[in-house]
Amino acid sequence: MIKSMTGFGRGEFQDEGKLILAEIKTVNHRYSDIFIKMPRQISCLEDKIRSEISKVVSRGKIDVFISLENHNDDSKTVIIDEPLAKAYLNAVELLKDKYDLKDDISASLIAKFPDVLKIEKVEQDSEAIWNILKVSLANALNELIKMRQIEGESLKNDLLEKLMLIENVLNDIKLRAPEITKEYKQKLESRIKELTEQQTIDENRIATEVAIFADRCSIDEEIQRLASHIKQMRETLDLGIPVGRKLDFLVQEMNREINTIGSKANDLSITKNVIDLKSELEKIREQIQNIE
Fold first, then answer.
1. CA angle 177-183-188, nearest 5°?
2. Who contacts 37 (Cβ-Cβ below 8 Å, separation ≥6)?
């Protein structure tokens, strides 16, 4: 199925008190370019995220936003520096004895001394985080792919309509092309009669001139190749793989054949047809820039 490179997906999943939200936005790009913004404490999972995205998105500018809410608040813990606390306690006891102080020594007193209690970050269990994150990511990717497929189908239908228009114009050219040589022969004979008046016309000379003209202006091969490219493009649109680059190549080939037809035909009617062909082909070129 044809996919657009434009899309958006959002997914979230919560487990073990942790909620992870994943958002993915894609736009057209010549290659695959993935940018990930995520909390620093889980940045070790970035390569896994890239790998999962690359499995289903082969082309486009891909922006990924990951957020983590830890409702258990287990990301930090309090550490007691027992040797330091004991040293403070001994010092306070010494002061009491030396100066005959009567105040009791309490835990709250010791805890107030510098560095007795320290807050440290708890190392996150990356595997547990990944088990939550990959579900959120899968949900976001499913939404993204669905949106890209819907828009891709719309692009496909539009391209098929434009190909039909091109094919119709090409058929007009195909019907007109044989008449060009006939008209040239008639004009040549008429011109020679005007110049030679009553003299006998050299039919062999006329036949030679007409043959040279016909060979120089023949567009049969270009018409055949252009028709073949149209057929290939239709077949390509039915493939179930990314086809954006192939479509771009076919457009270049079609443009080359159309230009050649325009330069060789030497006919006003076909020149107008060529302008119509180039106009529709340019619309196709613009559309396929957004196809994966």
1. 135
2. 63, 64, 65, 66
Q: Other CB atoms closer than 10 Å to residue 108's CB: what's the count?
A: 7
pLDDT in tens, 34-93: 999 999 889 999 999 999 999 999 999 999 999 998 766 666 677 887 888 788 778 877
CB 42 within 8 A of CB 179: no
Q: Are strands 76-80 and 117-121 parallel, antiparallel or unpaired?
A: antiparallel
DSSP string, 100-138: T--PPP-HHHHHHSTTSEEEEEPPP-HHHHHHHHHHHHH
C-alpha 212, offset from chain centre: 49
pLDDT in tens, 151-202: 999 999 999 999 999 999 999 999 888 877 666 666 665 666 665 665 566 6
For residue 177, the model assigns a pLDDT of 81
Question: What confidence tens digit (pLDDT) does each residue in 231-240 have?
Answer: 999 999 998 8
- Token pair 């306690």 is at which residue? 89
Cβ of 288: how many Cβ atoms within 10 Å?
Answer: 22
3-state per-residue secondary structure call for 148-198: HHHHHHHHHHHHHHHHHHHHHHHHHHHHHHHHHHHHHHHHHHHHHHHHHCC
Cα of 132 vs its chain's centroid, Å: 27
Domains of the chain: residue spans and CATH: 7-72+124-149 (3.30.230.10), 76-121 (no CATH), 152-288 (no CATH)
pTM of the model: 0.70
* Residue 291 in tokens: 């196809």
How remote is the C-alpha of 228 from its chain's centroid? 27
